[in-house]
Automatic annotation (TrEMBL):
Gene3D superfamilies: Aldolase class I. The gene is tpiA. The active site is at H96, E168. HAMAP family: TIM_B. The keyword Isomerase applies. Keywords: Cytoplasm, Gluconeogenesis, Glycolysis, Isomerase. One of its GO terms (cellular component) is cytosol. Belongs to the triosephosphate isomerase family. One of its GO terms (molecular function) is triose-phosphate isomerase activity. This is Triosephosphate isomerase.
Amino acid sequence: MQPQPLVLANWKLNGDRQLVTSMVSALRDAADSLHGVNVGICPPAIYIPALTEACYYDAIGVGVQHISEHPKGAYTGELAVSMVKEFGVDYVLIGHSERRSLYQESDQQVAAKVAQVTSAGLTAVVCVGESEAQREAGETLTVVKAQLAAALQGLAQSSPALLVIAYEPVWAIGTGQTATPEQAQQVHAEIRSWLQQQLGDAGKDITLLYGGSVKPDNAAELFAQADINGGLIGGASLVADDFIAICQAA
Ligand code: PEP
């Protein structure tokens, strides 16, 4: 059985309180067209309480874009899993390419964060993907599999049901240059088969998202691919009509 479709909004360093309320209200109005699709929003962390309050009666998941790999201590500016859990967070993005490139988030940190998140019972959304140079050098699968291995190392004893993988080719993020459905499906199929080799049948049930310039006009074709179970949406998740159209395509 295919995992249930999931579409997550990654607002990055964008949005405000007004966007929280207007997005929740637009998703509520569209709820009848979104049956069977899990939808979640990852706003900047300061808006989490406003989001959990606004969507208290709605089937909208709440996510954070970043957490510490440490449970507590002298780490100025960081947020621990136990803290975001207290505020009703369901999903935690880990290893986004912007965190990897701008803040040097390593595979070791990814593994430590997956361990923190899944042992707390939250869902770890691990982002993997190659740069343009790596794709041109034929290294896509080597890079992606090394990133996946770090995620599984962190998963350790936790349930694979708490793991979501987002394949996001770095060259497609925020560039308007989407992977073709065939390019995306090819990597997703490899990810699926690698997960099955490592985890057996549980690997079949892991949700695989595609991310990288998904828009209302290319979402349906991407989500129609056999191993693409939804999307991680950046720019287009800031406009309610666009985000809802993408969720409807899932
Ligand atoms: C992302 O940041 O995860 C992303 C996919 O961004 P965009 O949709 O803007 O390419």
